[in-house]
Amino acid sequence: NAGVTQTPKFQVLKTGQSMTLQCAQDMNHEYMSWYRQDPGMGLRLIHYSVGAGITDQGEVPNGYNVSRSTTEDFPLRLLSAAPSQTSVYFCASSRTGNQPQHFGDGTRLSIL
Amino acid sequence: QKEVEQDPGPLSVPEGAIVSLNCTYSNSAFQYFMWYRQYSRKGPELLMYTYSSGNKEDGRFTAQVDKSSKYISLFIRDSQPSDSATYLCAMSAYNTNAGKSTFGDGTTLTVKP
Asked: How far apart are CA A30 and CA A49, in angstroms?
């Protein structure tokens, strides 16, 4: 059971570079989300999707883009990396809007 | 003021102790309440999931929800070193969109042998 798979696990970027964080789930869940986790600030929602082709902004969307072309995949794009985006990023999925979420093991991103 | 406030910790207890982890919230629309456990360098994993007020027990873990007081708790009995982790409370409203769960900041627990 793969569950939610995030790649890469670690990444170092220079300011201004762009990159895509990958997230895939094999549970046929409609709902997927991206969070960032910073010390003392808990999990903050970046973007979420309620199904293929449908995305919306969360609490901290600036500097990030998402798309959802398939049920399985929900990539997160950093357009022009900034040091403030240094964080641990988690992808999560759930079967319905009220069901608990399944999380990946995160991508640890450092921006110099 | 945050919608969900979690006792910040950290907590350090001896093995075998009873642990109480707590969250308060301000949004009366919250109906679904969750506790996640997060080990170091791992993603959160669901521990307990409850709907509305009441208690739910699963082995050594008991989740309590008091909607009148807007207060939830997680109790761990006979705590073990393997319970050492960060515990996150989370809540969502009925018919919410996924990802609209609101999380507490987490409480880090250390259980010493």
From this structure: 8
